[in-house]
Amino acid sequence: MLTAKTLVAITGSTKYEDRMASFAERLNTYAPSQTAPHRLAQLLPQVLHESMAFRYVREIWGPTSAQLRYEGRADLGNVRAGDGKRFMGRDLIQCTGRSNYRSLTDWVHANLDPDAPDFEENPELLEQPEWLGIAVIWYWTTRVRASYVDAGNIEMITRQINGGLNGYTDRLEWFDKTALVLLGYGRDHVRAFQSAAGIAVDGVSGPKTRAAMHEALVALDGAPAADLMPDPSDDDTDALRALVGAFIADAGPLL
Hints:
Blueprint: H1 4-11, H2 17-30, H3 37-51, H4 65-68, H5 83-86, H6 98-111, H7 134-143, H8 146-151, H9 154-162, H10 168-182, H11 190-197, H12 207-219, H13 235-251
Helix pairs in contact: 1-2, 1-10, 3-10, 10-12
């Protein structure tokens, strides 16, 4: 399971800890399969980038010229006056447009909770603690290929979330921090991981280091994320590092 403590360790801040706890609760309750370490390491960087580390739970409304064009957008299902603003982007990965709010509601009722609210009728609920993260789960489950997630293909996951590669460098940096914490290291301890993985120790996380991180995370599949403590002085962290080290020793240099 995922905890707010893990998210605090990844972000380095307690400022939005309540939102982190709400999101963790949604994920643990409705998508426990996504809390496997190698899957969390793909999901969380996308959430952290899109929400600016839990800062935003809804679209910043100007309105901008682009937002004004939401009004009357048939492809978004915005067919009634005022739909553009009413169905602005909400949640940590934003759900935008009446038709998407309707699709989200139908999917949640059919797959997760038949007693969940109607988000088309109550769009503001997506930014409230009780339902924060539900649109993330819907989008991640229905729009992002599981094969990309399990392969650690950050580029293709980003394309499916963003439609392109906007903010790709930031997403990669969040992957590094997330993976390191889930592997029992401090969020910036690239060198320590590289040393344990038997790859060149330069403190730079590039394709080889990220591939090694992904492989180590896959090896930890089944280890509860709640047990991954980021404090270097924590006995549980030392135990986790030892476990990772054992996997690496058995496998030889990962790359």
